[in-house]
Amino acid sequence: xxxxxxxxxxxxxxxxxxxxxxxxxxxxxxxxxxxxxxxxxxxxxxxxxxxxxxxxxxxxxxxxxxxxxxxxxxxxxxxxxxxxxxxxxxxxxxxxxxxxxxxxxxxxxxxxxxxxxxxxxxxxxxxxxxxxxxxxxxxxxxxxxxxxxxxxxxxxxxxxxxxxxxxxxxxxxxxxxxxxxxxxxxxxxxxxxxxxxxxxxxxxxxxxxxxxxxxxxxxxxxxxxxxxxxxxxxxxxxxxxxxxxxxxxxxxxxxxxxxxxxxxxxxxxxxxxxxxxxxxxxxxxxxxxxxxxxxxxxxxxxxxxxxxxxxxxxxxxxxx
Length: 320
Fold this sequence. Notes:
By secondary structure, this protein is mainly beta. 4% of the residues lie in helices and 48% in strands.
């Protein structure tokens, strides 16, 4: 779509995140003013619905849960807490859980793929990540993962739940089961891949991807579109964006017990400024890169395996 909907959110300070719900009909924004604002943006119009105030500091990120869990929104803040909000008909949003086990700013949150249940992954400046799970008994359980990135966690992203190559190798997919992995990016300049261990009933680091020369600001797994390859994008204070790829295990590598290596590809020349966010399209083949020069560029892989810039949008929502 080429239509741009632009409006004043009425936030009193900088906006840090804006997220559409599953159906793309509602938008949640959050700001340094400590509030979250929810809008109806269906039919190319915007209507303010509600302001959510529960944090005592800047709110860095918001995340909508899958609609099968109801109308649920999570938020994380500099105040060290994560709030889970639920909407009830006629009463609006209210806090149904407050997660306050972190000792510093919570910088990033991400809901797990809905197949894994209502699980929220959080990353904090205290160097830890945590998993907040709503159990079948109706209670919230917290699992803290200490020393994820010693100097602080800036970004988190869940891997697609369907294994790479599952469409082309259905037999392998059935035996593999659901993928339970996520990536984190931190102030130690590293990206780490974590996988669930059935034995330990916890997540362990299975791979550390180094290459950035400064803080990693964001990480994002691409949605699985059936290709026999996993794509992970990372961006950093060092003005670089990397695309990390891992081919689906072949019968020979699976027999050897060693997963295929991650390959790193740099996106173009260094960007003109700090790169803050990377985000994939729903179809998983277009990457949006948000840079400190107030420009967003869209990138796509060509048939030669090279990444090309296919579009550029300036801060007014106009194509450059």
